[in-house]
Here is the input.
Amino acid sequence: MSKEKPNMSRRGLLRGDWIKQIRNRGAKEIEKEQADQEPQFLLKKPEGQSRRNGGFVHRPPHAVPESEFVVGCTKCDACIEACPPHAIFRTPENEGIFAGLPILDADSQPCLMCDDMPCVPACEAGVLRLDAPLAMGVAKIDSLACLAFRGTVCTVCAEHCPVEDAITMEAGRPKINDDVCTACGVCLYVCPAPDNAIHLIPKN
Here is the structure.
C-alpha cells in the first residue's frame, strides 16, 4: 500500500526531526479537535495495519493476550491520554464489540517506546501490565520493495529504530532481530521506499 508521508530531507531524518514531527502532528490534531469542540482524541479509522481486517491487531506495548485484552479492557481511554506521541487510537466504531479498544497505527503515528511506558501504569483495567510481553509483534522486511536490497544505499530504518539491536545492517542490507524487535513501527514510519518495505505481523 502506498501512503503519504511528511516531506522531509534525509538531513532532517538524521537530525531527528521526524520525532518532532510526530509529536507536533499529534498536538495539532488535538488542537484542531478542541477548536471544533469535538472529543480530545482523534476518532478516525487508522490507515495502516492496525485494522482488524489487515490481519494484525496492533495493541499497545505490554498488552495481555488478545482474548484477555478484549474482555478486560474498559475502553476508558486512559492509555490514549497518557501516550506522549499520541500513537494510540480507538478502534473505529464500525468494528462492533471491538470498537473503542486501543490500537496502534504505525503508518500514522509509531510508538516511540518511551522509557517510562506511561500507557502501562495508566491502565487501571490491567490489560497493559509490565509482566506482559513488551513486544507488540515483529517487523518484517520486504526485500522486493526495500531500497537497500535493490542496490540503493539506505540505512534509515536501522538509524532510527529506538530499540537497540532490533535492526542491524549486514552487507549494506537491514536485518531484523526477531527476538529483540517490538513492532513499534518506527521503521515502517520512516521507510523511504515508494511502496513501504516494512510490514508488522504477529509474533509467534
